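A quick aside before the break. I want you to see a complete sequence-to-structure record at least once, exactly as it would be stored in a machine-readable document. Don't worry about memorizing anything.
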Amino acid sequence: MQSERNALISVITVCYSAEHFIEQCMKSVIEQSLDRVDYVVIDGGSTDSTVEIIERYAGKISFWHSKPDRGIGNAFNLGVEHSRGEWLLFLNADDYFCRTDALEILASLAMSSKVDVVYAQVQPVSREPNPRLIGKAMGWPFSPWAFLLKDLIPHPAALTSRAYFMRVGPFREDLKIVLDYEHYLRSYKKLKTIFLPEVLTHMRVGGISSDRNLCLEEMLHAQKLNSVLPPTAQALLGTFVRSKAATGRVMRTVSWPLGTMTSREN
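That is the input. The structure line, written in tokens, reads:
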């Protein structure tokens, strides 16, 4: 993997005490076929062997550090600050690319159109060393109205343009789960996307975002923060999705940041 200051793509991994899976995540980035990738690893001051594993691959990383931060949102923003790519992808410590040409595929789409985000699908897997597939692949074509019911864009398989960050600003640091959802919600109906219905990333299940009620409440809060609906309509939507959640029929809510990354509250 060739790192350059003006790289085409930056991959950002934030982690905290992720010794069981961080190596698989990092190797899946380092082994990508695409040139001009810069890799940024933000560790929150791990107390296990995570730092030793990162150091093992330091020569393949553009930037990394290990020190306490203010949480997930702050770690994401630090990753953006230290990245150099025209496009950014956030690959959590528990997740990994399941194809060596994943970035090459996304990059070819990103460079062919002027959009905010290019994304594919992720496949949930178990938390075993040799994970098994769980359920169906996630990631769907973007629709503003469907986006109010669930997160359509799985960030471990999504390239977001740096121009978009410059336009809407950094991630909020007061959200625990839906910070990527809220970030895209700032453009809402104006968000320009390309969707590829192919699985490029495996995502281990677990973590704080398995709490569906918390996911749902943060999702509704993010919608209020961005005034995507008039107050009355927002209240009706909240009543609707909460009633569906109570009966187990609600669509899967925004819960992409899974596993190690979401348990990172150092």
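Two observations worth writing down. The domain at 9-209+254-261 is CATH 3.90.550.10 (Spore Coat Polysaccharide Biosynthesis Protein SpsA; Chain A). The longest helix spans residues 231-246. We'll return to this after the break.
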